[in-house]
Structure formats: structure tokens, C-alpha cells
Design a protein that fits this description.
The chain has 5 helices and 10 strands, in the order βββββααβαααββββ. The chain has helices spanning about 60-65, 70-85, 110, 120-125, 125-140; strands spanning about 10, 15-20, 25-30, 35-40, 45-50, 90-95, 145-150, 155-160, 170, 180-184. A hairpin with a 5-residue loop joins strand 8 and strand 9 (about 170). The longest helix has 15 residues, at about 70-85. It starts with 7 loop residues before the first strand and ends with a strand.
């Protein structure tokens, strides 16, 4: 998909985009995770916004958009790379999100102060941490190397992905509240 210069798009939970152009894509993350891929030579890439690591057997899961689950998102990326005749090792990969939205409700004190990691995921049942761990595992299995990430911690993130340059701007601390914006 090619877009006109300066076009903006908001990516909701369960949505996925892959294409080229000067599109600026924004999304807001809490426990959800976004993975951006960018091909610096072909200047194309993608972004996802997944809610949970894996699709279950519930009625909601069966009817949810395919981009709602990390395992499905990696299939979407695999299809996009196949169609564009590119490979995983050609992309700059960045991962964002997986924040603890209600840290006071985390029962296990050990988990409360841990960064998202496989070890921390085993200590607690935090959805954000599980999302980050699943994303890392699935990306690795698919041959992607994560170049940068801003994951875990407390609170939300507002992302702006500039498809034309591959830059991702992150504002932390509240989707609406003023915060420091950094480029990753």
C-alpha cells in the first residue's frame, strides 16, 4: 500500500499494517505490544498492535481480528515479507509496550520491581510481561533481531511510526498527559 505524503493513520487493537510511503501511524499501548519492522533500502515496513500472546478457544478469540494475538501477527509479517520478496534479516525491528497498567494490583512483590523478561514472566501473571516475552520469542523464532525496544515498566505509551524513515517516536506516562517524547 502506497500513501500520499504526510498521511496519518491510527492503529487500533488487533490491527496490522504493512506497506510503504510517507505514512505516519500512531497507536496507544498499555499492556498491548506493537512491533515495527522497517526495511532501510526498500523503505517499506509494518506495525502491529496485539492484545495477547496467543489465541484461545473462547467465542471472542474465534471472532477477534487476526492481529489481536502475537502468534497470528508473526504469520501476517511472514506473509508480508513473502509478498515483498524480502527476508527477516533485512529489517530493523523495534518492540514497544507491555506496560504494567495497575502496578498496585500485582500480588507478587518480586514481579512488581522486575523488568519484563522470561524470568519475570515466570514470577507473575502480568499480561504486559507475557506479551513482551511472547513477542521476543516469536520474533527470534522467525529470524528477526530486535534492534531497539521500550517495553515493560508502568503506564502507557503513545507511538508515532514514520514509515518513510523507520523512526518511532514514543511518549510515555499517559496517552493524553504531557510527557517526554523520544525517538527510538
Amino acid at each position: 500500500m502506497t500513501t500520499t505524503p504526510g498521511t496519518d493513520r491510527f492503529l487500533a487493537i488487533g490491527e496490522f499494517f504493512f506497506g510503504s510511503g510517507n505514512l505516519r501511524i500512531t497507536t496507544v499501548l498499555g499492556t498491548c505490544v506493537s512491533i515495527t519492522l522497517w526495511h532501510p533500502i526498500r523503505r517499506l515496513g509494518g506495525i502491529c498492535h496485539y492484545l495477547l500472546p496467543a489465541r484461545g478457544d473462547s467465542i471472542y478469540a474465534r471472532n477477534a481480528p487476526i492481529g489481536t494475538y502475537a502468534e497470528d501477527v508473526l504469520r501476517l509479517y511472514a506473509d508480508a515479507l513473502h509478498q515483498s520478496e524480502t527476508t527477516a534479516d533485512e529489517y530493523v525491528v523495534k518492540m514497544f509496550g507491555g506496560g504494567h497498567m495497575f502496578p498496585a494490583q500485582i500480588v507478587d512483590v518480586q514481579c512488581r520491581n522486575q523488568p519484563c523478561s522470561d524470568a519475570a514472566r515466570r514470577l507473575c501473571a502480568n499480561v504486559g510481561c507475557k506479551n513482551v516475552s511472547a513477542g521476543r520469542r516469536l520474533l527470534g523464532e522467525a529470524g528477526f533481531a530486535i534492534a531497539k525496544e521500550d517495553v515493560g515498566g508502568h503506564g502507557s505509551r503513545h507511538l508515532l511510526f514514520e514509515l518513510g524513515s523507520g523512526d518511532v517516536w514514543v511518549r510515555r506516562g499517559g496517552a493524553v498527559a504531557a510527557g517526554t517524547t523520544v525517538r527510538l
